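I have been asked to look over a protein record a colleague put together. Alongside the sequence sits a line of tokens, each denoting a local backbone shape. Please read both lines and tell me whether the tokens look consistent with the sequence. Take the sequence as given and treat only the tokens as open to question. I have pasted the whole thing underneath without changing anything:
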Amino acid sequence: MMVAGEAALAVSLADSLFLSISPDAARSKVLFFLAFSFAPFVVLSKGISPFLDRVPGGRRMTVFIVGILRAIVVLAMAQNLQSVLLFPLAFGSLILAKVYQVSRSAMMPTVVQNDTELMSANGKFGRLTGIVGFVAGGPAVLLQRIDTHLSLVMSAIAFVLAATMTLKLPRHVAAVKNKATRAEREEMSTPEIVRAAVAMSSLRATSGFMMLHLAFWLRNEKAGLAWFAFALAIGSASTLLANSIGAPLTRKLNHHSILVTSLCVIAITGIISALNGGITAGIVLAGVVNGFGAIGKLAFDSIVQQHAPDANRSRVFAQYETRNQLFQVAGGLLAVLFVPSGAVGFAFVGAYAAIATAYYAFKY
């Protein structure tokens, strides 16, 4: 349900921030928003996970509180769409979203019995995310066309439902009171994990860049909101497909090969999309970025499981997820800062992924 809320919120903000105001105004406001959302994560990246570990009730209660707060913030946004308060509210919503994503990654290892179940659970969660995101996009656009406030109300309802569903999780999920031991820190910093983490961060950076690049580029096209919603739906569908085939792949193939292949495919698709330069090419590239990003995440999880067997998995995943969120926001920041044309943006994605591919292949 968090995914459904995110989809409805993304559609509403796309219309409010990108399509209803001039390009220069949209750029300056979103740039301001991203800069202020990026700054606190730079400062707090080392402290977010330890702080969440100390919250009474563990991450289960954290996710519940986040769901309720996000619903309240979204309803406040609905009342302030034309006010300067919209941006600090959107900023707060983004911070809460990042806290949820970090907590979710930390929770996964604690609700399964072993590594095999973890990979299966990650795949199932990814498939569910794809389905919900794909299904929720259509109603969100329809409600947005009827009244901007309705899509935000849909988002708030989804967040409340998500919060109530977390109460079914075991109590004190992923609460880690003790500090990491020296042996655990060494396992978390093995060359295999560090190199894989660089690849995963690169995948997330391309995802963050593509979302905002498409949003700004499509605003100049006819039916811009519909195209953007379609791009979100394709991204969700590709995530669904990736998680359907990704789990079996990570059990049979070399995980490092999966990561470098994911980066390589994005690089090739980015270059081809740049040569084409059309809307269809951009949407296809967005789908490829999302899909192979999902497969890469499953491969990265497998690498952590192999090379950090004694580390607290919730702590490891929370640590790297926090960094991944930073890279995703940084990618979006670049898209808004430079606002390239469609083809130039696609070329940037291809070039960045190609450099990341070469670095990872050389190191590996």
